[in-house]
Amino acid sequence: MTVDTLAAAGPDAADRVRAVRQRHARRGDRGTVRGHAYTLYLVALFAAFYLVPVVHARSTSPASVSVGSLTEAAPLVCALAVAVCWGAQVAGRFWGPVVVQPFLLHVFMSTDIPPTRYLGTIARRRLTYVGATGLLSACAAAYLATDLFDHLDSAVQGLASGVGLSALAAFAWLWGQVRPLRDNLLVASAVGGGAALVAGVSRVAPDSGVGLWLLAGVLAATAAVLGPAALRAIGAVDLARLARESARASQAQTYAWTGTLHHALDLYRPEPSGLTSALIRPDGRLRGYLAQGAIRALRTPGRASAGAALLLIGSAVLTHGVAGRGQGPGSWLWALGALCVYLGSGWVGETWRGLRDELTLAPLFGERWGGTLARTLTWPVVAVTVGALLGGGFAVLVRWDHHSGQLGGTALLVAGSVVMALGARFLREMKLDLPLELLLPVITPFGDLSGLRVIAWQFDGFVVVLMGVALMAALPSAAGAAVVAVCVAAGCVWTGLRRTGWAHRGLFSRLGRG
């Protein structure tokens, strides 16, 4: 496909864009009818064996989460709206709706067609898909997990709120990509303030329908204002930056389809900038291990801020969940807090990624193993410990009456959960390419379960944290649960070192060697 071919397609820009897309759709690796039929077959099997039984079980049993009256449901939906909008904006900053395949974008950029012609069509189609998918997912989750749809009036209001929420999420996704950071912060602040106002009104005026109806109206109005502005901003998008984003997205998609999702995520890690000379003292020597870790974290301030916030929030939620274990949602809060600590500790994992490269790549100036443990453990352990103490201490101060009577056991369980989350993060950072033996079939009466092994390997950190929390919660003794957590963390460290092939290098025999 050349520029001359596009010019021969007709004077109308829409016809020329359509000609490019049709020619690109007829390329050699396009999907076949048999492939589409097999996809529909898999969808039908999933619906018959998983979706239908779940829906039937929900229809014949009470909901697991009761939202009570509509007045109580409105603040929860407001918090969900804020989280979805902010998450959509962040996702748009990395992979937005106008990211296209690099070759197709190169062809369009080689013509005189304005970007609004070819990018606008793609954006509208994807926003429609995302909005419809988000609405169906929100309705399905609300029906399966809550009792919001048990009555007609609450079902109508919940459906109206879901429509507004899905529309806002779709347009926020586009807004996050096409607008600068300042505009994104402005929209995020406006959405947060509007949600707080709606939640406050629903509390002050406890009418049966004012909360969700008001929220649905605010969401619809915000989407109506944000959508046209975001679509108009497509014409001013930086095509050079879009080309780089498209190339990175194509490479990440290749990694994801070949079973190395962690490599795909590593492509979106922000590059460090500045403070390079701060790592070296005036006399030419490197600074201490703790100072090195802090300076490396400051070289990516956005990622460090997000990680620190997740670590503090996760520690507070973890402490509250551990203190209320066995009572209502205590176990769920425990697992959620541990997962937040696991995610928040990623910003201190650069030291462990350096250790992985050091163990797997050939040494440039000979091997030197002196102080390996101190060098790789000082900053992550100190940073996560301080964050856990601050977040946990805040949770204890806020609800001292709930935590004071069992402070010792709570502290022991929180410490064990944090250690286990650190071990799971170490296991994730030591990950290399997908082992080929995981692709071998595992024949069982339920079919080939090799895909489950691949999924477990891809998300091994989450699996370790969730299984570890479940095992700790099942034990009656806090000391025994803490010992189990330490053993799980030690197993993660052992497995992570084995992934790098340390046994062939004699790591432990050289730890004290200078």
TrEMBL record:
Keywords of this entry: Membrane, Transmembrane, Transmembrane helix
Membrane listed as a keyword: yes
Transmembrane segments: 35-53, 73-95, 127-146, 158-176, 185-205, 211-234, 304-323, 329-349, 377-400, 406-426, 438-456, 462-495
Transcription regulation among keywords: no
Protein name (record): Uncharacterized protein
Originating organism: Streptomyces griseus subsp. griseus (strain JCM 4626 / CBS 651.72 / NBRC 13350 / KCC S-0626 / ISP 5235)
